[in-house]
């Protein structure tokens, strides 16, 4: 079951969900809008290798004039808001107003885990050039119920407590698939 806006608010008030900073104006009927932070990472190499740890990235910040996104480039960005819950399964999706500009906010990483805490890294791409701005509401987080999680069910992965966009850390798993 997806929580309604009033259920999200009640869960925040009883500390089952944390959204920081929180603004009631960003609460929707069954989600909460998250804003785009200034931080941007772009992979330097045009060809990426999943087995290479820490591929080089260029870091920049969105200026007051925004950033022109161009097709064919993956922009790793983050949300302003930090979210956390040890009771619900969080997920993010782009807002319809953002989708109507041809912007995708995630490639496949819209699903969160119980116990995840941090800002969300967004894998932003576009179908035609479009300018975006820091502070704009870019995506929405929603929360679904699940069985009663045990301590071992909580997320303890490589992206826990992130506060900046993080490049892929899939190379840390290479021993599983490289011979």
Descriptors:
mainly beta; globular; Deoxyuridine 5'-Triphosphate Nucleotidohydrolase, Chain A; about 180 residues; eight-stranded antiparallel sheet; 2 helices
Number of helices: 2
CATH superfamily: Deoxyuridine triphosphatase (dUTPase)
Global morphology: globular
Strand content: 35-45%
- What is the number of independent domains? 1
| Nearest-integer average pLDDT | 92
CATH topology: Deoxyuridine 5'-Triphosphate Nucleotidohydrolase, Chain A
Separation of the first and last Cα atoms: 42 Å
The stretches of 5 or more residues where confidence is low (pLDDT under 50) are none
The whole-angstrom Rg is 17 Å
Give the ordered list of helices and strands. Answer: HEEEEEEHEEEE
CATH architecture: Distorted Sandwich
Instruction: State the total count of DSSP E strands.
Output: 10
Helix/strand structural class: mainly beta
CATH class: Mainly Beta
For the report, how would you describe the main beta sheet? Answer: 8 strands, antiparallel
């Amino acid at each position: 079951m997806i929580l309604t806006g009033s259920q999200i608010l009640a869960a925040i008030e009883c500390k089952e969900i944390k959204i920081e900073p929180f603004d009631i104006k960003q609460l929707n009927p069954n989600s909460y809008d998250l804003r785009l932070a200034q931080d941007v990472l772009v992979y330097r190499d045009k060809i990426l290798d999943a087995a290479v740890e820490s591929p080089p990235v260029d870091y920049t910040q969105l200026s007051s004039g925004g950033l022109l996104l161009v097709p064919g480039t993956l922009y790793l960005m983050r949300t302003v808001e930090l979210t956390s819950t040890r009771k619900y399964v969080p997920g993010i999706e782009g807002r319809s107003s953002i989708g109507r500009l041809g912007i995708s906010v995630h490639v496949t990483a819209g699903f969160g885990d119980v116990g995840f805490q941090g800002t969300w890294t967004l894998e932003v791409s576009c179908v035609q050039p479009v300018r975006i701005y820091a502070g704009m509401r870019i995506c929405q987080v929603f929360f679904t119920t699940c069985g009663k999680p045990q301590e071992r069910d909580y997320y303890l992965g490589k992206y826990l407590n992130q506060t900046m966009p993080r490049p892929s850390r899939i190379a840390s798993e290479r021993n599983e698939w490289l011979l």
